[in-house]
Design brief:
The chain is α/β, with parallel strands linked by helices and 293 residues long. 37% of the residues lie in helices and 14% in strands.
């Protein structure tokens, strides 16, 4: 242990380890060295019980503060493995977060800072995602899971600034006390973990750019990218006519949009199904202007 702080993630299975090593490791390492963090990617499950195997591995982020390789660090920064770090631009994610607080970003779809945008996103998202759990308020978000509706904010647990000394008990309580409801539409561990964090009074809200959600950006500002090739709109036709090209006008447009989002973000969160889109990001760019040059 060379530093008092560490950045960590879980990548379980050969394909997930391979994608993290190929797409994420280098820029995470540059960021870690810039701000004095060790970097540890956990490649084996922290719980191998039948219960653990019956639900998403995402729940196991709640066990990291008891992992022997991590529990002696003063500060542990958890980052989901489907996130690209804009290491040229991002400041220290733990800067300004007291050691006894959990640094998290407010979930964009329930933002108190931009409630009109958040509502518009949800209205659009439920059209794009017909299988989603319909919830327009934080109270609904928790109540539909079976939690009390007394919590008015939602934390996105894809990025967390943690302390083993202060937060291990709470995270492990969530792991052992709650069960998974179903598929990704229930957000795996996020509903109960967010509820417990926010109601505990431990949360320190940090800049939203530390967990800049690509699906949110895509639906709000680039919805044409989601137009399927069977649709007759302009971008649907463009996809259909150029889908066999190695590099098409549609791919170029997609790349421009993604790089714009990446340049604005500190950490760009892709969401599992979108992880291959990382390949369209040019991590060597210093600014968005460079991409246009």
């Amino acid at each position: 242990m060379g530093n008092a702080q560490v950045i960590t993630t879980l990548a379980i299975g050969d394909s997930f380890v391979s994608q993290w090593n190929r797409r994420c490791k280098a820029n995470w390492q540059r960021y870690a060295e810039k701000y004095g963090y060790d970097l540890i990617c956990l490649e084996q499950p922290l719980d191998t019980s039948a219960r653990a195997q019956s639900r998403s591995v995402a729940w196991q982020k709640c066990l990291i503060l008891g992992e022997p390789r991590l529990q002696n660090y003063e500060r542990v920064v958890w980052i989901d493995s489907d996130i690209l770090i804009n290491d040229r631009k991002a400041p220290d994610v733990a800067g300004g977060v007291p050691i006894d607080k959990v640094g998290v970003v407010e979930e964009a779809e329930f933002s108190q800072m931009e409630p009109v945008t958040a509502r518009r996103f949800l209205e659009r998202a439920f059209k794009f995602w017909p299988g989603a759990v319909i919830n327009f308020t934080p109270h609904d978000y928790y109540l539909k899971y079976g939690l009390p509706n007394s919590c008015s904010r939602v934390a996105n647990t894809g990025v967390m600034v943690l302390s083993p000394r202060h937060h291990r008990a709470l995270l492990e309580k969530v792991y052992y006390s709650y069960e998974e409801k179903g598929g990704r539409e229930w957000h795996m561990e996020m509903r109960p973990l967010s509820y417990e964090l926010v109601t505990s009074g431990m949360v320190q809200w940090i800049d939203s750019r530390f967990n800049w959600n690509w699906p949110f950006q895509e639906i709000m500002y680039y919805p044409f990218l989601l137009e399927g090739p069977k649709r007759n709109g302009f971008f649907g036709r463009l996809k259909r006519k150029t889908k066999s090209f190695r590099w098409s006008p549609y791919h170029a447009l997609h790349s421009y949009c993604l790089n714009a989002a990446y340049q604005f973000s500190f950490f760009l969160h892709f969401g599992g199904p979108n992880i291959k889109e990382m390949d369209l990001v040019d991590q060597s760019l210093k600014t968005w202007v460079d991409f246009l040059a």
